TrEMBL record:
Keywords, sorted A to Z: ATP-binding, Leucine-rich repeat, Membrane, Nucleotide-binding, Repeat, Transmembrane, Transmembrane helix
SUPFAM superfamilies tied to this protein: L domain-like, Protein kinase-like (PK-like)
Transmembrane segments: 128-154
Lineage: Eukaryota, Viridiplantae, Streptophyta, Embryophyta, Tracheophyta
Designated name of the protein: RLK902 protein
UniProt-annotated stretches for the region Disordered: 97-126
Domain Protein kinase per the UniProt entry, residue ranges: 239-522
Compositional bias ranges of the Basic and acidic residues kind: 116-126
Claim: Repeat is one of the keywords in the record: yes
GO cellular component, as recorded: membrane
C-alpha cells in the first residue's frame, strides 16, 4: 500500500487495525485525506510531516496516547477524540515529561523510522521521572529527619535550661508581684538560706511532666480562687524555672519564676490520702480565707499523681530564716519595732483564722510559717493544711511548738495554736529556736528554759542581745515575755484566746510607740 505514491484519499476507518500507525504513510506524499478513526491503533501518533497536502485527517476512537504533534493540531479536536491523547487541540494538558519531550518538537533522525528515537525518549523520560520521584521521596525523608533533629535539639536546650541551677541574683532582681497580690514587690536581697537544688528543680520538672500528662486530656487545670485573674496556667508553671525553697511537713516548696518575671511559691503536697472531692472542699475553704496578714493561696492543682498549691511568693522569706539564718557580718539587726510588728501581724492573721469558727485553727504555727514582706510585715502561711495532708510525718522541729496535749497532728485546736504562738513569741524575744530546729541544732525547750530563767529573776538574760540595745522599751519587752509565757502554759484552758493575745500586743505596741514619740518628739 505504501508504494501507491499517487494515492490521494485513504479511508480505512471503522476497521480492526491494530498496532502502531505505520510511518510508511509518509511515502504517500500526495495524500489529501487520511482517515484512520474507529480502529485499534495504539502508541503515539508518528511524525507525518511528509504529507504536505493532507487536508483531512482523523485518528479518533483508537487506543492512541501521548501528545499531538504541532503539525497535526490544525485538524481540530474531532480528529483526535476517543484516545488517551493530550495537548492541543484537545485542551488536555500533557504531563510535563510528555509535552516537553524533545522527540515531539524536532524531526526524527530517520524519517522512515521516525518513532524509534521517540520511543527511546519515552523510555528515557519514564526512567527520569522514576529517578525524580525517588529523589523527591529521599529529599522529603531527609528534610523531615532534619526538622525532627532540630526540634529535638531545641527541646533538649529548653529542658536543660529548666533543670539547670538558676542564678538567684538574676531572679531576685526580676521578682514581681502577681497582679492582685497583696504581697510586697521586689526583693530586698536577704540571703535566707535559699539553695538552688538542681535535683529538686528537676523533680519539679519531672512531676510537672506527669501533671502535664494528666492535664493533656484538658480535664485537669489550675483552679484559681476568688476572683483571682488567671494570669498563668499549669503549662506556664511547668515552663517556669524552679528553685527549691525547702522541705516541710506537707511537701516541698518551690519558687517558680514565670515567663515575664512574676514569682510564685508552689507547694507539692505529699501524703494526700483524702478523695478528690474532700480535697476540693477543704482546699476551697483555705482559698476563701482572705486577710492582709495571711499568705494568699491563689490556686491549686489536683491529679492522681500531683497535688500543687500556688501561693504568692514572699520576697523576704520566713521569720525563721530572718532570726536564725544569717548570724554573720551582713545581718540586719532586728529591732523591737520590727519584732513587735511581726508579733502583732502574725497575731492578727491567726486571730482572723480563729474568727472563722470554733473548729478552725492553723495547726502548724512556727517561725518558718510566718513569712515577710519587704516592709517586714508578717503573713501567716500554711494554714488549713493539717487536716488535708496525712499524719505520716511530724518533723522534730514542729515538736518544739506543739502543745503538750496534742498527740495527733491533725487534731489541733485554737488553744493549741495559742501555745504554738507563745513559743513563737519566745523565739522572737530570745532569738533562740525551739527544740530540734533544723536551722539551729542548739534548739531548746523554750518555754521551760524561759520559765527557769525568769524564776531565777534573770529576766534580762532571756532577751536577744540585739533587743537589749533598745533599753527604753524594756517594759514592753517584759510584757510581751509575760504574754508569751501565758500562751505557753501547760493547761489549754488557762491560755488566753487569740483575740486577747492580739489586743495585748496591740496595746504594748502603742505604748512603745508613745514612749518613742516622747523620747524623740517631732
Ligand atoms: N509563699 C512563700 N514565699 C516564700 N517562701 C516560702 C513560701 N512558702 C514557703 N516558703 C519557704 O519555703 C520553705 C519550705 O516551706 P514549707 O512550708 O514547705 O515548709 P516549712 O514551713 O519549713 O514546714 P511546714 O511544712 O511544716 O510548714 C520555708 O523556708 C518557707 O519559709
Amino acid at each position: 500500500m505504501f508504494g501507491l505514491h499517487a494515492l490521494v484519499r485513504l479511508n480505512i476507518g471503522g476497521n480492526n487495525f491494530s498496532g502502531e500507525i505505520p510511518v510508511g504513510f509518509n511515502n504517500l506524499t500526495r495524500l489529501r485525506t487520511l482517515l484512520l478513526d474507529g480502529n485499534s491503533f495504539s502508541g503515539s501518533i508518528p511524525d507525518l510531516s511528509s504529507l504536505k497536502n493532507l487536508d483531512q485527517f482523523n485518528v479518533s476512537n483508537n487506543l492512541l496516547n501521548g501528545s499531538i504533534r504541532k503539525g497535526l493540531q490544525k485538524y481540530g479536536s474531532i480528529a483526535f477524540l476517543g484516545n488517551l491523547l493530550c495537548g492541543q487541540p484537545l485542551g488536555k494538558p500533557c504531563p510535563a515529561t510528555a509535552t516537553s519531550a524533545p522527540g515531539y518538537a524536532s524531526e526524527p533522525a530517520n524519517p522512515m523510522n521516525g518513532n524509534e528515537p521517540e520511543k527511546k525518549e519515552e523510555e528515557k523520560k519514564s526512567k527520569l521521572s522514576g529517578g525524580a520521584i525517588a529523589g523527591i521521596v529521599i529529599g522529603s525523608v531527609l528534610g523531615f529527619l532534619l526538622i525532627v533533629m532540630i526540634l529535638m535539639i531545641l527541646c533538649r536546650n529548653k529542658s536543660s535550661k529548666k533543670t539547670m541551677s538558676v542564678d538567684i541574683s538574676s531572679i531576685k532582681n526580676q521578682e514581681m508581684e502577681i497582679p492582685g497580690s497583696k504581697s510586697e514587690t521586689k526583693n530586698g536581697g536577704y540571703g535566707n538560706g535559699f539553695s538552688v537544688a538542681a535535683a529538686a528543680a528537676t523533680a519539679m520538672a519531672g512531676g510537672g511532666a506527669k501533671a502535664a500528662e494528666n492535664s493533656g486530656s484538658g480535664a485537669k487545670k489550675l483552679v484559681f480562687f476568688r476572683n483571682a485573674t488567671r494570669v498563668f496556667d499549669l503549662e506556664d508553671l511547668l515552663r517556669a524555672s524552679a528553685e527549691v525553697l525547702g522541705k516541710g511537713t506537707f511537701g516541698t516548696a518551690y519558687k517558680a519564676v514565670l515567663e515575664g518575671g512574676n514569682a510564685v511559691a508552689v507547694k507539692r503536697l505529699k501524703d494526700v490520702t483524702i478523695s478528690e472531692r474532700e480535697f476540693k472542699e477543704k482546699i476551697e475553704g483555705v482559698g476563701a480565707m482572705d486577710h492582709q496578714h495571711l499568705v494568699p493561696l491563689r490556686a491549686y492543682y489536683f491529679s492522681r499523681d500531683e497535688k500543687l498549691l500556688v501561693y504568692d511568693y514572699m520576697p523576704m522569706g520566713s521569720l525563721s530564716a530572718l532570726l536564725h539564718g544569717n548570724k554573720g557580718a551582713g545581718r540586719t539587726p532586728l529591732n523591737w519595732d520590727i519584732r513587735s510588728g511581726i508579733a502583732l501581724g502574725a497575731a492578727c492573721g491567726i486571730e482572723y483564722l480563729h474568727s472563722q469558727g470554733p473548729n478552725v485553727s492553723h495547726g502548724n504555727i512556727k517561725s518558718s510559717n510566718i513569712l515577710l514582706t519587704k516592709a517586714y510585715e508578717a503573713r501567716v502561711s500554711d494554714f488549713g493544711l493539717a487536716n488535708i495532708v496525712g499524719p505520716s510525718s511530724s518533723p522534730n522541729r514542729v515538736l518544739g511548738y506543739r502543745a503538750p496535749e496534742v498527740t495527733d497532728a491533725r487534731k489541733v485546736s485554737q488553744k493549741a495554736d495559742v501555745y504554738s504562738f507563745g513559743v513563737l513569741l519566745l523565739e522572737l524575744l530570745t532569738g533562740k529556736a525551739p527544740t530540734n530546729s533544723i536551722l539551729n541544732e542548739e534548739g531548746i525547750d523554750l518555754p521551760r528554759w524561759v520559765q527557769s530563767v525568769v524564776r531565777e529573776e534573770w529576766t534580762s538574760e532571756v532577751f536577744d542581745l540585739e533587743l537589749l540595745r533598745y533599753q527604753n522599751v524594756e517594759e514592753e519587752m517584759v510584757q510581751l515575755l509575760q504574754l508569751a509565757v501565758d500562751c505557753a502554759v501547760q493547761y489549754p484552758d488557762k491560755r488566753p484566746t487569740m483575740s486577747q493575745v492580739r489586743n495585748r500586743i496591740k496595746e504594748l505596741c502603742s505604748s512603745s510607740l508613745r514612749e518613742d514619740l516622747n523620747a524623740h518628739p517631732a
